[in-house]
Design a protein that fits this description.
By secondary structure, chain A is mainly α. Chain A has helices spanning about 1-30, 35, 45-55, 60-70, 85-120, 125-140, 145-155, 170-200, 200-210, 215-240, 245-250, 255-265, 270-300. By secondary structure, chain B is an alpha+beta fold. Classes of the chains: A mainly alpha, B alpha+beta. Chains A and B meet through helix 2, helix 3, helix 5, helix 7 and helix 8 of A and helix 1, helix 5 and helix 10 of B.
């Protein structure tokens, strides 16, 4: 196990370095930040001074070597926009996204497993049909539209919830709900499909013949064997959320890493783009390792 | 029974949430929702909208302020000024002014602030207003500052409206996010979610009605409008036209931005004045205005009324497709290659409905008989065409642009657009250059007259551009506040000017 973790970490480190190299050069291809940071009527002297002040007047290979050297010193550079450490900016935003993603993924996965299992237990029933319609709707509904309509109904119409922002329980309701919809819809479909297949297996028929309780058959035996594909899909969806829930963050004013990343790309705040990608890349590698370990825990045939 | 319990719990949760929402903030505190998070709070960047709207005249104060009606500089931290010679000005400073850190305002503090702006160690957007002028600042005595420039500065008092005076304890070699100024409010919080300003006890002026202002930001216009509607916020300075649907709370205001098309006069057929006139005459301006709302104002020149030099004696170009066609035919007969392809260069997202406006204008020019093709660019590519040096290999082109002059004087517009050295100019007219230089060096009524004459010449004789509209902004103001936006709202929202109803 330890050797597996060591190997996986080494591969991840190589991938992160490759990613950072790619991001470094790709961001520089977007153009000169002074065009965006200085007023349009700034003089050539002012633009030259800006480039010198921020090390942008050096050849690109030299800037890259300097970046690598600073990385070794754990110096991730300064944000051009925010006048402070780029990593500080990224680490301030990331927990906000992580909290939102964790709550939304946990709730949507638990709910989807429950709904998908019950739907598969009685295929063709009214519950199954309703679950299919709701999950397909959830998976295909545009989140920005749901968010705006939700605000108009619950914040402006009934004044039950705040329009946006961060704070207590009320501030979490709409962002979490909107963020849950798509994963819930997709996971219900996956759970239902894999459960139908599992429930048709010979060992389930044997369990029925032995007189085992229906609830135990569904949740104790069939579900456990159906979970591997669910974990794969849930992991993929979680990866997307960790990268930032840009629409939800933008509409609800949630100060997460997705919106920060997009804003930084648009504003050519290179150091922040690199830092946000580094943070999310590390988080995604950790998540992938966790998923691998979960596979092993659920399926005794998988050993590392 | 179980169903009943679930309903009771759900109801309690929502009622609790609603009660928390309904908890009103103290009467003298306001919440303002901006379209964007301020990237930083460096006082040398107050000409940037989302920095200026928080800091300018609230936390930091300039030496002068511009009267939004007359465009003339008015005293603020400088109470009087005099021009000693064309290159030298003396300023007298206000007495009994303290910075938020307790330091006294004196001539040395002003010298420090200007040297911090011009020193090149801090990225300073505001200094762009001074062009390439080299300033030497000295303290004559405790209350008098001398500013010398390497070239005449007839409107230095106007330029001083972008000089934000900061405490001498501010680092001179790096940008800051915790500015210390002399304004009626001091900064208490700057986080990724909020900026909070609280009234400063030691302010030299009258105590403002508002004791505390909390700024938040939402990029969606409909959310900002909803926040004011539900009472979550008291004011939002910018909402989209489709969200400005409540006459009780939504105010339209002329926002100092002028949209236009620059004509690149370096290439045929655009180097022919008949074609340039035809371009102006071929547009159905009333039809085009529908893209921008009922309140939009047709522009005849690149500055809005109220800016020194604005000439109200001539009208915007009218729609006359027959005359446009006649001018094109006349040019064709004279050997002008009117069929040459002209590239209309638009910028994505430059203003709402900007792309639709370009498509409509292209169609109207094609209808008039010109071979115009539209290319939409992102800001970085578009900038290459806006500023010199222009891209090599470019052909005849028309450039979509929007110009913002809220600084009270045509000097912030004319040389950039119409002088041979202007960074946006495609003109090469030595006689026009001399007139621009003369206007820039003039003062008082002579200056106003010279700029007015220049705008008339540029419109009637040179036809250097196609002015489109003076743009309108929409602001939603909650029922608690007594305040209306004006031409300066895009750059500052002085909290001290906001009164509370009852």
């Amino acid at each position: 196990m330890l050797s597996y973790l060591g190997r996986r970490s080494f591969h991840s480190l190589v991938s992160v370095l490759g990613l950072l190299t790619l991001v470094f050069f790709l961001t520089r291809l977007t153009g000169d930040p002074s065009a965006l940071y200085l007023p349009l009527d700034s003089s050539i002297e002012a633009r030259t001074a800006f480039a010198r002040l921020n090390g942008l007047d050096q050849p690109i290979y030299w800037q890259f070597l300097q970046y690598l050297k600073d990385l070794l010193d754990l110096d991730f550079g300064q944000s051009l926009r925010q006048n402070r450490s780029a990593m500080e900016v990224a680490l301030e935003a990331f927990p906000q996204t992580l909290k939102l993603a964790f709550v939304a993924m946990t709730l949507s996965t638990l709910l989807a497993v429950l709904v998908g299992s019950l739907a598969a237990a009685r295929p063709g029933s009214r519950f199954d049909r309703i679950a299919s319609i709701v999950s397909l709707g959830g998976a295909s509904a545009p989140d920005f539209w749901i968010a705006i309509v939700g605000i108009l109904i619950f914040a402006v119409g009934f004044e039950l919830l705040p329009t946006s922002g961060t704070g207590g329980f009320a501030y979490w309701v709409m962002p979490v709900f909107v963020l849950m919809l798509r994963p819930f819809g997709l996971l219900v479909q996956v759970v239902r499909g894999t459960m139908l297949s599992a429930l048709a297996s010979p060992y389930i028929r044997t369990a029925h013949a032995k007189g085992m309780a229906r609830r135990k058959i569904i949740f104790g035996h069939a579900l456990r064997n159906s979970l591997l594909p669910v974990i794969t899909v849930a992991g993929d969806l979680a990866t997307g959320l960790i990268n930032g829930a840009v629409v939800v963050e933008t509409i609800f004013g949630w100060p997460g890493i997705g919106k920060l990343m997009i804003d930084s790309i648009i504003q050519r705040d290179f150091a922040v783009v690199q830092s946000t990608i580094l943070v999310t890349a590390i988080a995604i590698f950790v998540l992938n390792i966790a998923i691998d370990l979960l596979y092993a825990a659920l399926d005794p045939r998988i050993r590392y | 029974m179980r169903k009943m319990s679930i309903r009771v719990v759900a109801g309690a949760v929502f009622l609790g949430a609603s009660a928390a929402l309904a908890a009103a903030q103290p009467a003298s505190e306001v919440r303002i929702v901006l379209p964007e998070q301020p990237a930083n709070l460096e006082p040398c960047g107050t000409i940037i909208t989302n920095v200026g709207q928080i800091l300018s005249q609230n936390v930091v104060e300039p030496l002068t302020v511009i009267d939004p009606t007359s465009g003339q500089p008015q005293p603020r931290l400088a109470t009087e000024w005099s021009q000693v010679d064309p290159n030298t000005w003396h300023l007298k400073l206000r007495d009994s002014v303290k910075f938020h850190d307790g330091t006294d305002l004196n001539a040395e503090a002003v010298v420090f602030s200007i040297e911090r702006m011009t020193g090149g160690k801090v990225t300073c957007s505001n200094i762009a207003k001074f062009g390439d002028a080299k300033l030497t600042v000295t303290a004559v005595d405790d209350r008098t500052v001398e500013i010398k420039s390497d070239k005449p500065q007839p409107i230095l008092p106007t330029l001083l409206s972008v000089v934000m005076v900061v405490s001498p304890k501010t680092p001179a070699d790096k940008a800051v996010n915790d500015p210390i100024g002399t304004g009626p409010y001091k900064l208490t919080t700057f986080s990724p979610q909020t900026v909070v300003l609280e009234a400063f006890d030691g302010y030299w002026g009258e105590d403002p009605d508002i004791t505390k202002a909390t700024y938040v930001w939402r990029s969606e216009s409909s959310i900002r409008a909803a926040m004011v509607e539900t009472g979550e916020a008291d004011l939002t300075p910018s909402i989209a036209i489709q969200d400005a649907n409540n006459p009780q709370t939504d105010f339209a205001y002329l926002n100092s931005e002028t949209t236009a098309i620059r004509i690149d006069t370096d290439f045929a057929p655009l180097n022919d004045v008949r074609i340039r006139k035809a371009l102006n005459l071929a547009i159905d301006w009333e039809g085009l205005a529908q893209l921008f709302g009922d309140d939009v104002k047709r522009a005849s020149q690149m500055v809005v009324p109220g800016i020194n030099g604005h000439n109200s004696e001539f009208e915007p170009w009218a729609y006359d497709p027959e005359q446009a066609k006649a001018l094109i035919a006349e040019a064709r007969a004279a050997g002008v290659p009117v069929d040459t392809e002209i590239e209309l260069i638009g910028r994505n997202g430059i203003y709402p409905n900007g792309a639709e406006a370009m498509e409509a204008m292209m169609a109207m020019w094609q209808e008039a008989g010109l071979n115009v093709k539209l290319t939409m660019l992102d800001v970085a590519d578009w900038l290459r065409y806006l500023q010199k040096p222009f891209p090599e290999g470019r052909g005849p082109n028309l450039l979509q642009m929007m110009h913002d002059n809220n600084k009270g004087d045509a000097a912030f517009t004319v040389p950039i657009f119409y002088h041979s050295n202007g960074s946006y100019s495609t003109l090469h007219d030595p006689a026009l250059d001399q007139e621009v230089d003369a206007a820039m060096a003039a003062t008082g009524e002579d200056r106003t007259a010279k700029f007015k004459a220049l705008f008339a010449k540029v419109r009637n004789d040179v036809v250097a551009d196609i002015p489109m509209f003076h743009m309108i902004g929409y602001t939603r103001v909650g029922p608690r506040l007594d305040w209306k936006p004006d031409i300066t709202t895009n750059s500052e929202i002085p909290l001290a000017n906001i009164a509370l109803k009852d």
